[in-house]
Amino acid sequence: MYSYSVNYPKKALENKISGEVMIEYDRYENCALANPKVIKGLGYGCDEEALRIAKQIVSSRFKCIIKCPNQKCEIGKVKQVIIFPLQEE
User: Fold this and answer.
1) Cα separation, 24 vs 18, whole angstroms
2) If DSSP codes are grouped into helix, strand and coil, which group holds residue 13?
3) Which residues contact 13 (CB under 8 A, 6 or more apart)?
4) What is the pLDDT of residue 10?
5) What sign does the dihedral 34-37-39-45 (CA atoms) show?
6) Radius of gyration of the chain (CA)
7) What pTM was computed for the model?
C-alpha cells in the first residue's frame, strides 16, 4: 500500500533487536489518515523510527488508494505494521 525506507536504529542493531512495531491511525470519511501513534512497540529506537515513517506516510500520501470517484471510507482506526528485520552479517 505504501512504500517507505526503514533506518534501522543503532541501538536495535547493537542489541540484535528485530520484530514489528504496530502503528494506529485515525481515518476520516475522505480517507485521510492522521494522528499516527505506536500501539505495540519494540523499544531500542524502533518505536521512534516507526513513528517517523508513519508521519511521512500521512504527509506524503494523505489519502488511501481508492480509484472510485466519490468513494467514502469507513471512519475509524487503521493499523499498520512496520517490520524491523535483523540482517545477519
Assistant:
1) 20
2) helix
3) 86
4) 95
5) positive
6) 15
7) 0.83
Cell of 8: 534501522
Question: How do residues 33-85 score in pLDDT, each as one tens digit?
Answer: 899 999 999 999 999 999 999 998 888 754 555 445 566 788 999 999 999 99
Residue written as grid cell 542493531 = 13
Round to whole Å and give the CA distance between 43 and 64.
28
Q: How far apart are CA 9 and CA 28, in angstroms?
A: 32
SS3 sequence of 19-75: EEEEEEEEECCCCEEEEEEEEECCCCCHHHHHHHHHHHHHHHCCECCCCCCCCCCCC
Contacts of 10 (CB under 8 A, 6+ apart): 45
